[in-house]
Amino acid sequence: MKLRALLLRLTEDLLIAGFVVMIAMVFGNVVLRYGFSSGIISSEELSRLIFVWLTFGGAFLVAKDGQHLGMTTVVTMLGRNGRWWCRLAVEALSLLCMGMLVVGCWQQASINVENHQPVTGVPVAVTYLAGLVGGLGIGALNLIALARLLTGRMPDDELVVGAESEELTAFENQQAAEKRS
Q1: Looking at beta carbons, which pairs linking 143-150 to residues 24 or more positions away fall under 8 Å?
Q2: Model pTM?
């Protein structure tokens, strides 16, 4: 468990560092262009690359916590068997999507390994590796959840996964407050 926690913390720290670097480059480039009529030449390419990695890394971390948007209100209304089948469908379909993402990103990375960004010279394949890594990570989470579900080791309170939209949560909180009044 310590290795897992260390790897997750490292992932979070890398994403934070990437975000800070991206903001600094973009802000610095804006200041340099407007204030000094110059700029950081590689800023746009590197920011785009970091943004792609941030997107897939963030998607993995949100998936790890089960916080992607879901239809939890509808699934909660179902009985235990309905919730079980919905969770099975979610994990299986997500695994299918991650499989397609991994295969597609692998193919694109293989095709673009010899192509380089015009300014930085970074291989274009590095961009597609973000999807490959993200897809493998989320796919692994799907496999773990499927194994727990199919072996009966997933408790009932984990059958409903996902986050509700903020509007629905605010509406439910308002209704609960009105009932108490």
Answers
A1: 143/95, 145/87, 145/91, 146/88, 146/91, 146/92, 146/95, 149/84, 149/87, 149/88, 149/91, 150/88
A2: 0.84
